Amino acid sequence: MEPHLVIPGREGDYFSGEQVTTWGIDQFWGLPEYPHTPYYRNFETAVDSDAHLYEFVVPMVPPTWNERERVVEYVALMEQGTVPTAVAISTLDVCQPVIDRGDDYFAHWGLTHFLLDGHHKLEAAATAGRPVRLLSLLTLGESLAGAEDTARLPALRTKSHTARRLGR
What we know:
Layout: E1 4-6, H1 18-23, E2 39-48, E3 51-59, H2 68-79, E4 85-95, E5 107-117, H3 119-128, E6 133-138, H4 147-157
Parallel strand pairs: 3-5, 4-6
Antiparallel strand pairs: 1-2, 2-3, 4-5
Helix pairs in contact: 2-3
């Protein structure tokens, strides 16, 4: 995977972008959902004409807590061709709003990896624009997706990276 660090409310933030185009902003607060932490975006692709897959990595501690020297060490190793491995527990949530309040009504498949080990590695990969491996343990009972959805993940991950275009 090639992660990209996202700061909530800034360019590339799913919660300020794609989620708002489907669900709209929070009716009480008048603001988008706020994840309260920087996170990494990775892969996305069309599931079909009515659904899109988004992949996220959520660190257990914010990147600002990472030791700078370790991140720099991993960047140097990656520039020499090393591809380190991180470990995460993951969920697949398939969600769609009950009513259409946004500009683009479709199902969101959220493949979310909660990072257990490899915080420095992921930040280094995002900084250097290099790949990192992710050993992901997908929870089946805790995900908001059916068995048929999770069975489709391997094939979906082989598709090309495609951003969602409004209304498609």
